[in-house]
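Journal club prep — side note

Before the paper discussion, L.F. wants everyone to see what a predicted structure for a comparable chain looks like in token form. Sequence:
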Amino acid sequence: MSHQLAPGLLPVLIPLPVLIPLLGAAVTLIFGQQRMIQRYITVLVLTSGVVISALMLMLTDQHGTGVVQVGGWRTPIGISLVADRLSAAMLLVSYIVLLCVSAYGSGQNIRDGDAKQPTSIFRPTYLVLTAGVSAAFLAGDLFNLFVGFEILLAASFVLLTIGATAERIRAGVAYVMVSMLSSLIFLTGIALAYASTGTLNLAQLSLRLGEAPEGIRTAVYAVLLVAFGIKAAVFPLSNWLPDSYPTAPAPVTAVFAGLLTKVGVYAIIRTHSLLAPDGRFDTVLLVCGLLTMLVGVFGAIAQSDIRRLLSFTLVSHIGFMVFGIGLASVAGLAGAVFYVAHHILVQTTLFLVVGIIERQAGSTSMRRLGGLAASPVIAVLFLIPALNLAGVPPFSGFIGKVALLQAGAMDGSALAWVLVAGSVVTSLLTLYVVAIVWAKAFWRNRSDAPEGHLAAAKPPALMEETDDVLYDERTDPGRIPVLMVGATAVLGTMGLALTVFAGPILGIADRAATDLHDSAVYIVAVLGDPGEFR
């Protein structure tokens, strides 16, 4: 690829992460009865997404931000799709996760009864979810960011309630109600922004809000922050998450835990950079970040089910990202960006491992589990990402936490030092939590577990059709499907790759943070001459 052709290639690539999954979803619906063809189409679409997003990251890192005006409308009229280092990096990590989870689900369905499972609707919905994630990351205006979120909401409800058990319907309805409340607040913010400035284009909105009365700027950002805080599960807006995610099938839970909250975090980062560059609400973000860390990890300590425990650690570690955003420095934002990538990979890996545990051992409750260390595959698959999540050296979790702690120390304020201390406490408590799981689920004998004699009758899949039986009478699930192990191992390896290549990846994160810290970079890329659009 020549240096001259590279910049011109970026506008061609930018719409593809949204278009290809939508087309793929339509084609998989057509082949609803040919499950093998559906599977191949899904793999092809997601593999293409990995390649395209990797090229986009390379090009944005070399040549800067790329912009496409959909339909050829003149900026800022119409839809702007914007790809910079941050959005391209988020797309790449997301597509890697989506591809691996899709392979994992295929392995589970092939072995455990694909014919009886609702895969004909699962894969099209999964690809629609992929398009929604991509649209949110590439949106250059508030309304299309809202559209991306709504695509996510529609697909998420189908995936959460697939199989239609009472528990899943209850969790799905609660999730939708919270998401609709968040969307209503988001729409209120959009209406307020448009009424105040006459635009929803993020770049132009940044310019016009800078000239608006202080009360208007505060109101617009505050409303948007509440909406995105709900989606990102930032305390005190996080109570919905631990009750919604654990009920879904393992592949769905893994994707939700790894990706969906990070779309909310991305929206907070983007709007913080463009709409609140003067530091308003930074103190609020720091306090909420601290409370999110501590409340989440204390909630995890109280859990006896591994899925719920991991859901609380998910909430807890969102606090680290909010910590970096609230510092509002290049170092803080770079640490947050790196930590987002780390957490997507590690948290998804852990939920996939829990799915394997549930399949092989018949439960995710630590009141029933024991003796899992007898399976070296499961033990290794769990231990490495668990230590990574806890931030044990030399894993990427440690590197990300150190980057955030250094940024806090560089800030030097009393609140920043409190966050530094809170981060250390949270990391130690996370290590304690995973040690509890290891001691109870892996190290002790199953006969010593209070309910170790019980297990699910059959391995769960997309649609649960199982009852509890005596563990000794349970049908042998057989060996773990190769695709389930392989997909989980690939994601775990990607988490380790963040450690091995931490230098270059932190370099990309630092350059992305530098662009975020100087909002003029984004504004000029989208608008050209900013003075023309004030």
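L.F.'s comment for the group: Confidence is low (pLDDT under 50) at residues 1-5. Keep this in mind when we get to the figures.
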